[in-house]
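## retry 2 of 3
previous attempt timed out at serialization; input unchanged, resubmitting
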Amino acid sequence: MTVQPTRTDIPARTAAVISEYRGLEGPLLPILHGLQEEFGYVPQESYQVIADTLNLSRAEVFGVVSFYHDFRKAPAGRHVLKLCQAEACQSMGSDKVAAKIKQLLGIDFHETASDGSVTLEPVYCLGLCACSPSAMLDGELIGRVGDDEIGEMLEVIRT
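## retry succeeded, writing output
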């Protein structure tokens, strides 16, 4: 369970994560994953601390965070719903599933509901191609997503 940081404790907690991974070859990605685990996202306040420690520019750190979709720049909702948008799922109607879920939740991809209940994210393969369209809710894979599965996911999100 992540504890939301205050602006004053981000540098110290960032330094602690950096010290854990700094000795690895190519430590930037492990550090960013560690920060995401620590905070639930990668705080902008940590970019300069990372840059100074690894002799990188702040822009290089930001570039890596923004390139990889799994790194969040803000805290996620209580639930995270990932909808597969890869070709196999598209061929089986993932666009319609996504449109319906977006409409029901009132949010788009990369957004969090105003009540903080859910963050909606696109992914580009969950490995369930034979069970398309697929989704992942809080780490649990869901195949053959249709109206019943959408209803079940929304019930979980709303509790």
